[in-house]
Amino acid sequence: MAETDQALPPSDQLAAMNLTDTVEKHAFSDRVLIRSIVGRPDGGAGLAGQRVRAGGWVKTGREQGKGTFAFLELNDGSCPANLQVIVDAGLAVLSKLVATGTCVVVDGILKVPPEGTRQKIELRVEKVVSVGEVDPAKYPIPKTKLTLEFLRDHLHLRARTNTIAAIARIRNALAFATHSFFQEHNFLYVHTPILTTSDCEGAGEMFQVTTLISESEKLEKELIKNPPPSEVDIEAARQVVSERGEAVKQLKAAKASKSEITASVAELNKAKENLSKLEERSKLKPGIPKKDGKIDYTQDFFARQAFLTVSGQLQVETYACAVSNVYTFGPTFRAEHSHTSRHLAEFWMVEPEIAFADLQDDMNCAEAYVKYMCNWLLDKCLDDMLFMAKSYDKGCIDRLRMVASIPFVRISYTEAVELLEEAVRGGKKFENEVKWGIDLASEHERYLTEVKFQKPVIVYNYPKGIKAFYMRLNDDLKTVAAMDVLVPKVGELIGGSQREERYEVIRERILEVGLPLEPYEWYLDLRRYGTVKHCGFGLGFERMILFATGIENIRDVIPFPRYPGRADL
């Protein structure tokens, strides 16, 4: 440190220092990330002697030495590890610092703690810059171990817990990995609409978007405040129009001046306008507008039924059939009244589409993508994964390493059913019947990945009766070129297919499954004009987090879970 700095008080020395030369300072804050201290290979010991400003929330705090100083475990969310901070009583009222949840910003000097302690570095505070106090009697997230179920009732505070913060960092890493993988392979990121008039999966499970209800309620209130005109009111207005019209006639017959006639015509037009408004207003009826006994959606915001999307696939295909390799990554919605640990009403999907590619290419891309994400977590998020292994699933890191390093098994649907039937004959009991034609249940998928092969499995060529109309019909006319990637812990992680590019075949399939052609004319145009072989898949992002972390309930791996009866915040 320069001699001129020696004469400055500690807080001013901190301001004068260029922290970027010593320890990483946040680019847009006057503090150092705790991760840049304790996340070093030496645990921060090599930074001893450096002055830093740190900020975070107290995980645990305790007064020591008969109240002469306090130990604080500080965490700012940048990593799972805490920074131990020591504050002398002369710097602050210690009782206001030690409560779990308190936010503090402090200046101090990093020092190596005495031998035999767990920490490799600690911060001796020279100045307490600010304190965000907590009333321990009211704070709902104490330092005691809390269940994940309990934390769902405190969504706005649960990110302060070690588990939810770790999941947030893992989720962030997987999102970054997703974009990195597709960008590295020359895919274009396309934003598909949240609001859609396309029915990709079946309207029965879609959330409807409408302004008819709010407009109806607004009209009802307005009609109570200003009742519609009666027939007497309208008749009176008609009489005024008649009288004004007669007045104009008389003036013209009497050859009155132009200004008189003009003024009288203006009165007539005003009376006609008033009558028109009254007649229009008399037609207003409370309630949702109907036509022929059905809701009249032509009166709705989009002049037709609209929904929250269940998939961006159909829309993103339009770009695949123009710029070749694309992907969309965003929220999707399902109005399914399910309370299982695997279902959400709002969840995120990663959906790539590849032009000039077939089912084999689709499987190759899906496998490479899953492996890429596993390696990304092992390389860039290992501290959080170690926390998950210690706290929830001791096998999660081994599972990531296994998936990242070995080829996926690939078997046809028919072969999968035969293996399951063989297991049943050997005494294995499944809750769901096994026979050709069924949609494989989660227990079937997990048997194949966790028991039979003990590795990821890709099942392909499914019966057409259990798959969507847009999947390419195989030559046997019984199966389609579909594939599912099954992984240990969660079962199906990815579902995809080669898309049907033949116009006549897909047109017939739409009719075969009982859908109207009109809403899909634009989709058929992709086959009418310059059709191309293409494929794609969808990965349920939350399922990938379940697979990676070993967390049991999907409601705990999305920041703000939506499910039947709950949409907090």
From TrEMBL:
Residues 233-289 form the WHEP-TRS domain. Keywords: Aminoacyl-tRNA synthetase, ATP-binding, Ligase, Nucleotide-binding, Protein biosynthesis. Its EC number is 6.1.1.22. It holds the Pfam family tRNA_anti-codon. It catalyses: tRNA(Asn) + L-asparagine + ATP = L-asparaginyl-tRNA(Asn) + AMP + diphosphate + H(+). InterPro entries: Aa-tRNA-synt_II, aa-tRNA-synth_II, aa-tRNA-synth_II/BPL/LPL, Asn-tRNA-ligase, Asp/Asn-tRNA-synth_IIb, NA-bd_OB-fold, NA-bd_OB_tRNA, uS15_NS1_RNA-bd_sf. Residues 326-559 form the Aminoacyl-transfer RNA synthetases class-II family profile domain. SMART domains: WHEP-TRS. Transmembrane segments: none annotated. GO terms for molecular function: asparagine-tRNA ligase activity; ATP binding; nucleic acid binding. Gene3D superfamilies: Bira Bifunctional Protein, Domain 2 (3.30.930.10), Nucleic acid-binding proteins (2.40.50.140), S15/NS1, RNA-binding (1.10.287.10). It is an enzyme of class 6 (ligase). One of its GO terms (biological process) is asparaginyl-tRNA aminoacylation. It comes from the Eukaryota. One of its GO terms (cellular component) is mitochondrion. Belongs to the class-II aminoacyl-tRNA synthetase family. NCBIfam families: asnS, PRK03932.1. HAMAP family: Asn_tRNA_synth. This is asparagine--tRNA ligase. The lineage of its organism: Eukaryota, Viridiplantae, Streptophyta, Embryophyta, Tracheophyta.
